[in-house]
């Protein structure tokens, strides 16, 4: 079994525990703890590591996966079928663009991949990762996490149109997909991120480049009641330079930080102050060391970046305006996307063939690899509570 990388549970996130008791006697399995009512037994066992509950006995394992038990955290991934990148192309007209995206969750306790429920198909979901006209370049599918939700916010469809007119959202603790409010100007290759439970989308292009869209900034507040959901215009960017790439807008101490070009190329940085609704210049030390994918911890107090050439994981020191090395690993070279959560950094590398997990809370720092399902390559990973199921 691979190391379980998210051992904590989310307290108080499951509702109705008293109305959904664990009844093992009904199935002939036996009580959770002999001599105690199951609701009391659950309180006693909820402080134990999930891996221990999984390994001791079936009643405890059943309790661990019950809807009433606080859910542990899992890894969620967006994946596409692997393709032969070296295959000779003779007739582009005969190549069908691939849009068979899959959504899976990795259970760190059982070390198993599980598919998410099928997303809604009205309207049909068409997300491209590769297109015959752009054989050497992957088309991004932009996703983020906000308030324990997975949000798919931008992608490319056939004929290079924006694929989503509304964000597609998955809530693990109800195992339910739904669409968010309609986007004013559907787009792709935009800057997307979240801060304090609010989704932000800036710049980007639609079916054609438009200057007003490339300079726009909008927010969707998930903290509001659903009937009040909608996109609100915010302070505009000074230019459209952030419409060239799929940009990570990383929430950090009440601000969104982003750069307009990936990798080692010379880049421009921008910082959006959420509270003041104001754009600022990015500190020179921050933009100078932003040489790969970046992510922030759930509390948005620490921001990490991976140098995709050196394989160096670093965290930003705001007081000294510099990046401090955490660890350097060969496996982190060619890192393409990353997520941070529960003290772990999860990075996608090697063209989606690897997921590297780094525990930044341990001394010395520890790392290991999670293998994607056979025949699939990972586009993005996220850290969220496990899916709740009525079946154990």
Task: Please tell me about this protein's structure.
- It is built from 5 helices and 24 strands.
- The chain has 2 domains: 1-15 and 30-70, no CATH class; 74-293, Kelch-type beta propeller (Neuraminidase, 6 Propeller), CATH 2.120.10.
- The chain is globular.
- Helix 2 runs antiparallel to helix 3 (58-64).
- Mean pLDDT is 85; it is low at 7-28 and 86-97.
- The two termini are 19 Å apart.
- The protein is mainly beta.
- An 8-stranded mixed sheet has the order 11-10-9-8-12-13-14-15, with no helix packed on it.
- InterPro entries: Kelch-typ_b-propeller.
What labels would you give this structure?
single chain, 392 residues, Neuraminidase, 2 domains, 5 helices, globular, Kelch-typ_b-propeller
Fraction of residues in β-strands: 25-35%
Mean residue pLDDT: 85
Shape: globular
Q: What share of the residues lie within helices? A: under 10%
Biggest β-sheet description: 8 strands, mixed
CATH superfamily of the largest domain: Kelch-type beta propeller
- The side-by-side strand order for the widest beta sheet comes to 11-10-9-8-12-13-14-15
Q: Please write the string of helix (H) and strand (E) elements.
A: HHHEEEEEEEEEHEEEEEEHEEEEEEEEE
Low-confidence stretches: 7-28, 86-97
Structural class designation: mainly beta
């Amino acid at each position: 079994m691979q190391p379980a990388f998210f051992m904590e549970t989310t307290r108080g996130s499951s509702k109705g525990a008293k109305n959904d008791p664990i009844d093992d006697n009904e199935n002939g399995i036996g009580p959770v703890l002999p001599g105690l009512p199951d609701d009391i037994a659950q309180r006693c066992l909820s402080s134990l590591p999930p891996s221990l509950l999984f390994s001791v006995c079936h009643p405890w394992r059943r309790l661990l996966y019950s809807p009433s038990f606080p859910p542990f955290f899992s890894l969620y991934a967006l994946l596409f079928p692997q393709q032969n990148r070296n295959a000779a192309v003779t007739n582009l007209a005969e190549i069908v663009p691939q849009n068979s995206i899959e959504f899976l969750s990795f259970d760190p306790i059982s070390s198993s991949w599980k598919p998410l429920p099928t997303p809604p198909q009205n309207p049909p979901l068409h997300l491209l990762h590769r297109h015959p006209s752009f054989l050497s370049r992957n088309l991004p599918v932009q996703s983020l996490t906000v308030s324990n939700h997975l949000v798919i916010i931008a992608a490319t469809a056939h004929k290079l149109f924006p694929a989503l007119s509304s964000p597609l959202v998955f809530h693990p603790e109800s195992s339910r997909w739904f669409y968010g409010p309609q986007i004013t100007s559907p787009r792709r290759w935009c800057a997307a991120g979240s801060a304090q439970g609010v989704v932000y989308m800036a710049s980007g292009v639609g079916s054609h480049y438009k200057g007003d869209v490339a300079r726009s900034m909008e927010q969707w507040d998930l903290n509001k009641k659903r009937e009040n959901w909608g996109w609100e215009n915010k302070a505009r960017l000074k230019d459209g330079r952030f419409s060239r790439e799929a940009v990570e807008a990383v929430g950090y101490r009440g601000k969104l930080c982003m750069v307009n070009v990936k990798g080692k190329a010379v880049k421009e940085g921008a910082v959006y102050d959420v509270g003041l609704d104001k754009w600022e210049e990015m500190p020179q030390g921050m933009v100078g060391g932003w040489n790969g994918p970046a992510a922030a911890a759930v509390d948005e107090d620490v921001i990490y970046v991976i140098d995709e050439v050196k394989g160096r994981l670093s965290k930003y020191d705001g007081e000294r305006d510099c990046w401090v090395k955490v660890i350097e690993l060969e496996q982190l070279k060619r890192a393409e996307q990353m997520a941070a959560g529960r003290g772990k950094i999860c990075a996608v590398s090697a063209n989606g063939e690897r997921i590297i997990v780094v525990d930044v809370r341990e001394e010395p720092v520890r790392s290991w690899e999670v293998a994607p399902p056979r025949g699939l390559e990972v586009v993005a990973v996220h850290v969220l509570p496990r899916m709740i199921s009525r079946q154990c």
